[in-house]
Design brief:
Blueprint (H helix, E strand, L loop, with lengths): L19 E4 L13 H6 L5 E10 L9 E7 L1 E3 L2 E2 L13 E7 L13 E2 L1 E6 L2 E14 L13 E7 L1
Antiparallel strand pairs: 1-2, 2-9, 3-7, 3-10, 4-5, 5-6, 6-9, 8-9
Amino acid sequence: MKIVGTNLTTNVTNSIYFSACEAQVKSLIVPMGKVAASNIRTGNTQAHNFNLNVYCKGLRPTQPAPVKIYFQGATTSDGLLKFNDAGQSHVASGAAIELTNGKGTRLPFTPSQALNLDWQQSQPDAEVYHFAGQARYVPSGGEVKAGKADAVVSYVLVYN
């Protein structure tokens, strides 16, 4: 019997950086306050800041891997959020909630336009990323009428 030796090698590539990414706060409420319809008509409304820290646990990359975010909700275009129960008599009309990032760009509502989160720091068990945004009432077309003006938006984290 003749034994022939072979020199086989296996190259394993791992492109998974994190086992899970999640926000530190599960639900974030941005108090918008009461705003006069005349201020909405003229675009003279105050922006309200909100922040989101995201912790990505798992494998430690040699440099921070990209983590992106986009949003889902009732919207007519990126960054303009419709009010809950829009069209009902008790709900405000002619206005929307404009959502922007810290640079004033309207937030994306499609995965292809997801924004990069800012890497902040490494912790012993996680990489920390940060998102800063603003919300404010803006005119959306038609007559601005008073009423309930609440809205809900969800965020989606993209990482791998």
